[in-house]
Amino acid sequence: MVNRVWQTYRTVLFCRLFANYFALILIPVIVASVLTHFFVVRLIERDAETLNNTIMQHFSEQIDDTFGTLERDMVNMLSTVSVKSFLRSTGDPAELQQHYESIHSLMQQMNKLDSGNLVYKSFLYFANEDLVIDGKTYNGKDEYFREQYPIKDTDIPSYVANFTGKKSMVFAKSHTVYERPPYTRDIVSTHSNIAVMMSYPFNSSSPDVYLVVNLDEEKLRERLGIQEKWVTDTMLVNSDGSVLIANGSSGFRPDSFASMIRKKPEHDLFLNDEGKALTYTESRFDDSWYYVSMIDLPTLLKPAHTIRMMTVALLCMFIIVGGLVSYVLSKRLYNPIREIKSGLESQHLGDAPGLHNGNEFDMIKRFSRLLISRNKELAQTVDGMFPIVREQFIVKVLLGEYRDSLSIGYYAKEISFPYNPVAAATVLCIEIQYYSPFADQLSETSKSFMLAELKEKIRKLSPAMIWVCQTRSDLLACVLHHEENRLCDPGETANAIKQLLQQPDYKASIGIGKTVHAIAALHQSYNHALSMLKYKSLQPGAEICSEQREWKGRISGDSFLSAHEVNRILNRYKAGDCKSLLQSVFDLLDAGMRSNTNAHQMKNLAIDVLNTWTRAVESERNDFDISVYSEFFAAINRCVTWEEMRQTFRDIHGVLFRTIEPSDRKQQFAEILAYIQNHYNEELSIEYFAEQMNMSAGHFSRMFKEEVGEKYVEYIAKYRISKAKQFLLETDLKIDDIAEQIGYWGRNSFIRNFRRYEGITPAKYRMMHQS
Q1: CA distance 76 to 84
Q2: How far apart are CA 649 and CA 662, in angstroms?
Q3: What is the mean pLDDT of residues 733-753?
Q4: Which residue pairs from 582-590 have beta carbons closer than 8 angstroms and sit at least 24 positions apart in sequence?
């Protein structure tokens, strides 16, 4: 029975742990997974489709430009004077010389067409004469197709049948051409060509001549191919769906193309009946042409599928891990419960009614209540916490959080705090300021122990009614109750406390507040004591700050510099007399020491001096940022004695008005040049070097120009160009790779800068020097 209850409670514990895990971790993971699926994955899919469309658009524009250039060249060829003059010749013997000159002129112009990368051979086919002219020879038609441009016998009829009617950039069917020397029968190789035809006169249905440009089909297919790994096949298709040129071996049915045109707009992906993804782009060259690409969707959408699978795997992992963790924790949590229950049963705490009923957890709760009721040590432990709670109560009263007698009485009753609501009391504020040698050496723990020891010593002066609490990390507050305090005078109490504060580690200042006659008004006495601390001096040792006659008799000095003194500091700086600036501060401190100026006034005056110094430095230099200046002002505020004030100004003067020797400056710039030469292929920001030398970017740029002789940007650009010239002459790297090697993000900026300094492009430079 007990085992069954244990198993049931352990199951409940597992369910609770897993429910917490589900609410705190699994729900955010599921939400993140859903968002990833519906937003991130879909965004990646749209980006992949957009990338494919951009590539297809760019590809179609390139191919259209190729065909457009070819058409222009063919029109220009047929529009030349040589063609027109040749057609006008009558064959008269008197014009025979001019006739042959026209033929040679046409041959020269045909050579220009043959220079294209895709052109295998071009020729002029004269319809009314037995004549064919190419870039090398002219022959009769039978002899030309038999010896100069031998076509496969089965392809000749269909090829010759194209020379009828008007032709305007007409692509004929592919035909096989034998590669063999003229007037021999030794066939070296065979390859396929596609003929592009144009007739002249252009608008004549019975033209006199046909210009035929035979394109190498293999090269055309290579040009038609897209190198992206997700594109399997690329085709040039006309409006009826027949394939003109194809790069790839996948089958393509005309009905698929017609269905795609009817259902999908341009650039959208279309899945045909065979499960293949297609996309098309209309040709700008010919309205009846379309560029169609077959897409491997798994490859194109692989990043999206990968993220989707990783998301599912991550979600499953979180579920499995959550179940395992909940199981292990439930087991570990429940085993101690059983052990505690067994241990409590062995203590023989009694046989109270219902003590052993229920599961182990219920039994432990009953045993615990019994232990609490019988154990007085627990009450003593709770009593030990009352001093801390009471001290926090006094702090809240002093800070003014509890101001009315009703709320003070209510909270005092809650913590059993005895007090007299209408007793006369005075607050003493003790400010602890550690001397600079000890401020950084002493840890916060050591400081806390010192303050705790000091509070105990103060309480022992009058244990009956002196409340001591810590309102700040550096401030103690003592509440003196006059009626029950054997040191009834606040001044006498302050003198007694002063003897305790004569320590070598810190300076203590005691501010005496005014006497109040109700606990609810203690915050007024506390605020008055704080205001008295503003009159503390810069003398070492403990001191008392009050409104007594001897304190009022102090001579109060100015807290700010006059306009005349400010101008004198600025003029000394401009004259280069920086040493006298420090001496003038020392004179100011000596005058304040003689007149016993308080620390608050002296620090205000010192901050005014520092403001003037920084204004003078900023007028000519901009070497420091705000954090440096803020540290200067903080250092002045931390000063405790006159000597610390002097040393602080020495340190600030050494930083603000330091001078860099020319030799040191040259050494620094030499190191910077060495760094640039070793890291020229990385990003070299001027702000990085300026920060290293504690200068602004503008000041560093001016110093670099003075030391090196040229601007920072010019030096880096020239050094990179010199390295580029070395790569161009000593390696076979491509222009893009060289640009990356020397630190440029792209070839365009590299070529532009190279031409700026060398006058020519990198490719021409390499060609000139290698030749």
Answers
A1: 12
A2: 26
A3: 87
A4: 582/649, 582/650, 582/653, 585/609, 585/649, 585/653, 586/646, 586/649, 589/642, 589/645, 589/646, 589/649
Judged by DSSP in three states, 176 sits in strand
Over 50: is that where the pLDDT of 555 sits?
Answer: no
Q: What is the DSSP string of 657-686?
A: T----HHHHHHHHHHHHHHHHHSTTS---H
Q: Are 326 and 18 in contact (CB under 8 A)?
A: yes
DSSP code at position 415: T
Cis peptide bond prior to 201, omega within 30° of 0: yes
Q: Is 692 helix (H, G, I), strand (E, B) or coil?
A: helix
Neighbours of 150 (CB within 10 A): 19
Which helix (DSSP H) or strand (DSSP E) does residue 584 occupy?
Answer: helix 578-594
Confidence grade of residue 105 (pLDDT, cut at 50, 70, 90): confident
Q: Give residues with Cβ within 8 angstroms of 438, minimum separation 6.
A: 505, 506
427 pLDDT band, cuts 50/70/90, is very high
β-strand partners of 512? 428
Q: For residues 133 and 121, what is the distance between their CA atoms, to the nearest angstrom? A: 11
Length of the chain: 771
Contact predicate 532/554, CB 8 Å: no
Q: How far apart are CA 738 and CA 732, in angstroms?
A: 10
Q: What is the pLDDT of residues 642-670, one digit of tens each?
A: 888 888 888 888 777 766 555 567 788 88
The DSSP bridge pattern shows strands 466-472 and 119-126 to be unpaired
pLDDT of residue 458: 86
Average of per-residue pLDDT across 189-205:
85
Nearest to 374 by CA among 385, 386, 366: 366
Q: The sheet that has 277-282: what strands, in order across it?
A: 243-247, 231-238, 289-295, 277-282, 270-271
Q: Round the average pLDDT of the chain to a whole number and report it.
A: 79
CA neighbours within 13 Å on the CB side: how many for 344? 22
Residue 538 phi, psi dihedral angles, 5° rounding: -105, 15
CA distances from 465 to 403, 478, 486, 519 (A): 20, 10, 9, 13
pLDDT category of residue 251 using cuts at 50, 70 and 90: low
User: Using one digit for the tens of pLDDT, what is the confidence trace for 257-269?
Assistant: 666 766 677 767 6
DSSP per-residue string spanning 309-363: HHHHHHHHHHHHHHHHHHHHHHHHHHHHHHHHHHHHHTT-----TTTT-S-HHHH
For residues 487 and 682, what is the distance between their CA atoms, to the nearest angstrom?
A: 75
- Per the DSSP assignment, residues forming a β-bridge with 212 are 123, 197
Structure tokens at 356: 């052993």
